[in-house]
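User: Okay, second chain of the day. Same drill as before: sequence in, structure tokens out.
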Amino acid sequence: MGYDAFVFDNDGVLTRPTDREVLVEAIRAAFDEVGVVEPTSDEVETLLGPDIDSLRTVATDRELEPETLWAARERAAIQAQLEELKSGRKQSYEDVTALERLEEPTAIVSNNQHETIGNILDHCSLAPFDVWYGREPTLEGVERKKPEPYYLERAIDDLGVENPIYVGDSRVDVAAADALGIDAAFVRRDHRRGYELPTEPTYEIDSLAELRELPR
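Assistant: Same drill. Structure tokens below.
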């Protein structure tokens, strides 16, 4: 049985990852917004990709509500990435044109904010997607991000398909697909040279153009 839908991660798959220093500066701006003028390097690093426990620890240490700190972080990250899109510094990969030749339904499921994915669709030349999910800018969104399959499962349910494949560029993408018992294609972009996967994906590809060669 061939795949009846293609679901994609975004950063590193459809668009180039946001420069790390852009996100670091956004997090520092968020700390400043909530009254923390000089966050430590560890605090900044934690907010780049926290779990709930690490986020709560930072907030408690700074006598802040976790929701307040996280909301400021998300606002700053959304705005910073929007500016990268508007300036043309954050762009789609050239091989995204291959998606125009897919006849099956397509979706995006990303650990980036839902609003940021909307901004990407507004500013990048991407084929239309039937469904797209980024995470909510809330503590619940942190808990639901990959490797949890929450948003991936929602997208598949919305598409109403039985045998989708998830296309990603990270360990958490493969893990989310495994959690739902669906196949995964790992795209080894330049930023993933030497990147090791603890679990083998169903396929490893170098370009989205190779998706046309998969079973259908």
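Helices lie at 20-33, 41-48, 52-61, 66-87, 114-123, 139-144, 150-159, 171-180.

User: Thanks, on to the next one.
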